[in-house]
Amino acid sequence: MLRALVPMLRVPDVPAALAWYREVLGFRSDEDGSTGWATLQRDGIALMLSAFNAHEGDAAPAFTGSLYLRCDDVDGWWSRLQGAARVCYPIEDFAYGMREFAIYDCNGFLLQFGQPIAREAAP
Asked: Which residues form the VOC domain (predicted)?
């Protein structure tokens, strides 16, 4: 039985990335990143940060996807983050039923924030 999927991002400076996720997104962690690894939590979700290791070398991040964070107040998140991070695209409504925006973290990973668009009740 699978219990969770926890993304692990390889970063060149774990303490710096840890500080960014704490300060900008409000994640918590009991670690300081000095061991080259840290787990962060917020609102029941988890994220791991790890330094590059001997198996991988110092390659640039090769992750080609994004981390998609579903949230309850996407407009509130947008208000808070639009001046705190580099924006990929501003908040907008999409035909597939989501209101979302995207930013880049301090290492260039794409973070998308989205919320289902409220549908009006049928008369």
From this structure: 3-116
Contact 91, 104 (CB under 8 A): no
Element (H, E) at 8: strand 8-10
pTM: 0.88
- Across 29-118, where does the E strand assignment appear? 37-42, 45-50, 67-70, 86-93, 98-104, 110-116
pLDDT of residue 63: 73
Its CATH architecture, for the domain 1-52, is Roll (3.10)
Three-state SS at 19? helix
For 17, how many CA atoms within 13 A lie in the half-sphere containing its CB?
A: 24
Please list, in sequence order, all residues whose beta carbon lies within 8 angstroms of the beta carbon of residue 8, skipping any fewer than 6 positions away: 47, 48, 49, 50
CATH annotation of 65-123: 3.10.180.10
Which residue stretches of the chain have pLDDT < 50? none
Cβ proximity of 71 and 113 under 8 Å:
yes
Report how far residue 17's alpha carbon sits from residue 39's, in angstroms, rounded to the nearest whole number.
Answer: 11
